[in-house]
Design a protein that fits this description.
The protein has 126 residues and is of the alpha+beta class. The protein has 2 helices and 5 strands; from the N terminus they run H-E-E-E-E-E-H. InterPro entries: DUF3467 (IPR021857). It comes from Lutimaribacter marinistellae.
Length: 126
């Protein structure tokens, strides 16, 4: 039970960091009027997630691209993966657009999640 509480606390900390960004990072105002300070990271106990509009879906394909200002990740479903067809048809269903900083936090979270998965269930191929 202690491990579950520890994991919830850790995931809450990751979520709080993802929701608020890095501590005291300087950024330019969109009006170009000069630097401003971002707020410090909010403690996990102070983050409340509203899941009333949350939707879940299964995706087995993703791809992405980026520019200097944003990272775009597309998610979809390949329904013909076992059909032996010459041409795959992938139905893209979701596009997530984020800043490079948010993408880096997402990457870090995914690395931790995969490491935890492999610790529990064994090394993944690929």
């Amino acid at each position: 039970m202690a491990k579950a509480a520890e994991k919830t606390e850790k995931n809450g900390a990751d979520a709080a960091k993802a929701a608020t960004g890095p501590k005291a990072e300087t950024a330019q105002h969109s009006t170009g009027t000069g630097p401003r300070q971002r707020e410090a990271t909010v403690p996990p106990s102070q983050v409340k997630f509203d899941t009333s509009n949350l939707k879940s879906s299964y995706c087995n394909v993703c791809n992405g691209s980026s520019t200097r200002e944003e990272v775009v990740v597309n998610f979809g479903v390949n329904n013909s993966w076992d059909m032996g067809t010459a041409k795959l048809e992938v139905q893209l269903e979701h596009r997530v657009v984020m800043s490079p900083h948010a993408a880096k936090r997402l990457r870090d979270m995914l690395v931790r999640l995969i490491d935890e998965h492999e610790t529990r269930y064994g090394k993944l191929d690929g």
